[in-house]
Amino acid sequence: MALRGRALALSAEYGDDRPALAVYLATLLLEATGHLADATPATLRDRFLGWIRPGRVAAPGTRLGA
Fold it and tell me: Can you say how many angstroms the Cα of residue 26 is from the centroid of all Cα atoms in its chain?
């Protein structure tokens, strides 16, 4: 599966739960740093986390949509 296809599959799997997706991808990024030693930190960040669209953040003590 191409990189774009994997991103679409993960987006569909996680839906609106972007924080959980970001944690999952950050875990993969950490694991990849040992395998992709020649890549710069910025390149890895962009590759693993850069495609996640930003979301709204709820104010402390509130929930989105409430």
Answer: 6
